[in-house]
Amino acid sequence: MAAQAIHQFAECITCHAWSPDHSMIAFCPNTTEVHIYKFFTDKWEKLHVLAKHDQIVSGIDWSRSSNKIVTVSHDRNSYVWTQEGQDWVPTLVILKLNRAALCVHWSPKENKFAVGSGAKSVSICYYEQENNWWISKVIRKKHESSVTSVAWHPNNIHLATTSTDGKCRVFSTIIKGVDTRGPQAGASVDWKFGEQIAQLDLSPTWAFGVRWSPSGKTLAYAGHSSMIYFVDDVEGSPAAQNLALRDLPLRDILFVSEKMAIGVGFDCNPLIFAADETGLWSFVRYLDERKVTPSTSKASQLSEALGKLYGQSRQGSSSDTVEPSKPRGGAHENCITCIVPLRKGSESIVKRFSTSGLDGKIVVWDLENHITIPK
């Protein structure tokens, strides 16, 4: 079994993040609070409760170099938390939102962060030294529905988003005085702030869990129709691959290397995807090796028959590949909504990661001794 550790922290967990040295974990137990735990010898102990939001906390990210925590909530607010002695001190961020904030991520250089929202917009937040506050510039009038996830390109300029309008978009987030312009910034074109670089209309349903590969050459995101999409050369001439899943949809994706990705979602079991030498992506296997005895009930037989019928209908499409069904059950007992890498230093290959879900568990997974990770 690849699950290294399983911790039952709450009845339900909305999102989670790790401290830079992985000694502490921050998570939202589906409430207005963020709990911070630390591992001592043989058990986890609660150290802090961050209580500033008025509604459910929907996103958490913990910066690796500056040791700051950013949180967002359905209350339309965001706070940047800075540790001062034994306390975490919040600073309100001016988001300019009239709907719930749904997700948040620090940029690679940690000089800004992006907040997706139900207001069909994305707030790019940065620190203004002169006034000693966090403010934002908003990308508006591009999305047709709620922004479900955001992902930063390694160049710190490009930002990918997914939305419940089914589209994945890539924007420029360059901000004067914060970012460097020109080729040295890693962008081949001198884009303006908020300019749309690409729009991918591959999913007929809601889109979730967008991520870039370590080099930024490949973009992956999931559709609520049990599809995952891998797109190369997004800025130039996008080349997309559609991979159809036999079972339930994904909610989040993580690249563990340039040629391997992990998908998590409603199947409660991480899925491994890999690319061959030609760049063709395919399903490898489920990560959780626990076996569940198949049911012999008429209901389960009918479900399996419908699944086969559904799979055959998908095989009729030449651009889709259908993956085999798998009995659910294992480390997680409910939908996995969040996947977070556990990197050491500057390593690009992710050998360990954690997942959290609606069952209130946080599971740490170890890939190194269970699967060969292609570079």
Automatic annotation (TrEMBL):
Segments carrying the region annotation (Disordered) are 310-330
* Protein family membership: Belongs to the WD repeat ARPC1 family.
Location comes to:
Cytoplasm, Cytoskeleton
Q: Which domain of life is it from?
A: Eukaryota
Q: Which GO terms describe its biological process?
A: Arp2/3 complex-mediated actin nucleation
Record's PROSITE patterns? WD_REPEATS_2
**Designated name of the protein:** Actin-related protein 2/3 complex subunit
Instruction: Extract one GO cellular component term from the record.
Output: Arp2/3 protein complex
What UniProt keywords apply to this chain's record, in alphabetical order? Answer: Actin-binding, Cytoplasm, Cytoskeleton, Repeat, WD repeat
Q: What is its main location?
A: cytoplasm
Question: What is the scientific name of the source organism?
Answer: Triticum aestivum
Spell out the SMART domains in the cross-references: WD40
Q: Where is the composition biased (Polar residues)?
A: 312-322
Q: Which Pfam families match?
A: WD40
What residue spans do the WD repeats cover? Answer: 50-81, 140-172
Q: Name one GO molecular function term.
A: actin binding
